[in-house]
Design a protein that fits this description.
The protein contains 4 helices and 4 strands. With about 120 residues, it is α+β, with helices and mostly antiparallel strands. It folds into 2 domains: about 60 residues; about 50 residues. It has a 4-stranded antiparallel β-sheet. α3 packs antiparallel against α4. The longest helix has 29 residues. It is rod-shaped, with a radius of gyration of 22 Å. The mean pLDDT is about 85.
């Protein structure tokens, strides 16, 4: 089913499916104040009033259900611990610092990949 989107400045765009509308919404091309008209209907609806779009935005902006901030703090804390250990003179601390730094780098790489996978179009 086709959809037409009317922006606040009066421009109109056509989309072949709701999936395309959702992708445009997730990319920020459609604002909550823009209006949406479903093929065969006569009533325009604000995009921000469509529950499927609102929930798509909410879930897409979060990495692992909103815990991105927590993972960032864990990464900063781990990096601080690793650098502190690396700054010590004893070899055991330096080895532990390398292990911690490698673990933090691996964790951050994993989180980045998960975030990228969630942002890719389906």
């Amino acid at each position: 089913m086709r959809y037409r989107v009317r922006t606040r400045d009066g421009g109109e765009l056509d989309y072949a499916s709701f999936g395309q509308v959702e992708q445009a919404w997730l990319m920020g091309l459609i604002d909550p104040d823009d209006e949406l008209l479903e093929e065969g209907k006569t009533r325009w609806r604000k995009a921000g009033s469509i529950p499927l779009l609102v929930s798509a935005r909410r879930s897409s902006e979060q990495v692992w259900r909103g815990t991105w901030f927590l993972w960032t703090l864990i990464g900063i804390f781990g990096a601080t611990v690793g650098l502190t250990l690396l700054s010590k003179k004893e070899l055991e601390f330096k080895i532990a610092g390398v292990v911690v730094a490698f673990g933090v780098a691996s964790l951050m790489a994993h989180i980045s990949v998960k975030a990228w996978e969630r942002r890719k179009p389906h």
